[in-house]
């Protein structure tokens, strides 16, 4: 069998693995990256990027439909139609451009990329079976980095196949269904459920918890709930699914044990993701686990010397920017630098309409942590830019310590608030106080003024409300 020796072997070319490999290559560490499917991993191929492309297309179509039905802006257009096959081709073009770019960046950094499936023999040896067949390759390494990501959770009573799809299938529709049932009102269920509704599909959502986006606080999700109801998405909260057949649809049981069926010609199951930790020899390393995830310390070390892990395989939050940040840190640690992965806050954005952003602690979390905090919100209804964008729903909220005004959290809900996440995270990472944000000139007219006004309000003297 052909053999290769390298200092660093990375398994998985998603945002965690490819960033680690690029940074290691830049630092002169000889690096091999093995990827079984396509560079860019879940995020670029079947996750973040394709979902945001579909959401954008759905938003554009919906906006055109609204104009056709009488716009207060005075715009008049004919009833639009959508060619979903062309939409999917456009989305695929973006994915191809980005994944091709990752390949070029890896080449530029001197990383050797092997397209194939890795099987771990021990902490220093991996066999790579080329994806296109042919002779396997044995790779010997000094450092092994696990970045194998995650996969969708399957429900035993609704196995994937035929009309029952995961997010991957929902992001590459050959045609639009007439009626879609979404199981799970979390990130994927609501982002894609809303997008399908905007594309004109009848959408019903079945959620086990009593509320949508149960990971976020209720005040923050209320505008999303209002938008779902206004758009005609039918919610079945506190319900469990029992099975599906094409004739009756999805069988559902409510909290009061009533049973009913929801007709559907497609079913999207989005009830969470699980780390990819089996099927490629990882078990043989007998690493310490944190529940179902690989346990790591603040330098992304596992319990075995020179075996490292990053990204979704290491647990929540399973987000691309966390994986990338860990990838950059671990590469530097392996190259001999003193780095730790200890962020003050990791932003989370849900790309529903309106969008939701959470950075740091909510008022409830601050209370639970024993902090005496001030919380203040500024509504977009009082923001001029929001009015010009027809985006007056939602608010920005700041949470800060009462004693020294140190900001410990930001939350926002509204159109376009995803773009405010950078300012929120920066302020927390830099240890900003309310006075720092209130004293920073925010351009007018922008949605960002609501950030400054929230800080003013927390200090007891909002100007524009
Ligand atoms: P992955 O991206 O999962 O990459 C792991 C790679 O390892 C895969 O390419 C896989 O093929 C490869 N691999 C696994 N085992 C082997 C093996 N044995 N040999 C060779 N290769 C192997 N996150 C956000 O931050 N923002 C978003 O907007 C967002 N939207 C999302 C939308 C959807 C629909 C989904 C499903 C996810 C979304 N996420 C989002 C989550 C994000 O995609 C993940 O957090 C991120 O991709 C994790 O990166 P990773 O490098 O840990 O793993
Ligand atoms: P999720 O954890 O966000 O939501 C799953 C939902 O399904 C929860 O509300 C849960 O209560 C519900 N649920 C669980 N079992 C159920 C059942 N049997 N019947 C009905 N409801 C059930 O998971 P997801 O939406 O699948 O997304 C997976 C992960 O992908 C996210 O946690 C996140 O890490 C990542 N993601 C991030 C983004 C983003 O950053 N914008 C977008 C999509 C996905």
Defining traits:
single chain, 465 residues, alpha/beta, FAD/NAD(P)-binding domain, Enolase-like, domain 1, 3 domains, five-stranded mixed beta barrel, five-stranded parallel β-sheet, binds flavin-adenine dinucleotide, binds nicotinamide-adenine-dinucleotide
Description of the molecule:
With 465 residues, the chain is α/β, with parallel strands linked by helices. It has three domains: 2-46 and 89-152 and 274-334, FAD/NAD(P)-binding domain (3-Layer(bba) Sandwich); 164-271, FAD/NAD(P)-binding domain; 348-458, FAD/NAD-linked reductase, C-terminal dimerisation domain (Enolase-like, domain 1), CATH 3.30.390. It is built from 13 helices and 23 strands. The chain has helices at 15-26, 41-46, 48-68, 84-108, 167-170, 187-198, 218-231, 320-334, 363-368, 384-388, 421-429, 434-438, 449-458, and strands spanning 2-11, 31-35, 112-122, 125-130, 137-146, 150-152, 164-165, 179-183, 202-207, 234-237, 240-245, 249-253, 259-262, 266-269, 273-275, 289-290, 293-294, 307-309, 348-350, 355-360, 373-379, 395-401, 407-414. The strands form six sheets. It has a five-stranded mixed β-barrel. A five-stranded parallel sheet has the order 7-14-8-9-10. Helix 3 (48-68) packs parallel to helix 6. The protein is globular and about 70 Å long. 45% of the residues are buried. Residues 11-17, 34-37, 41-43, 47-48, 51, 117-118, 147-150, 167, 188, 276, 280, 311-312, 318-321, 323, 351 line the site of flavin-adenine dinucleotide (FAD).
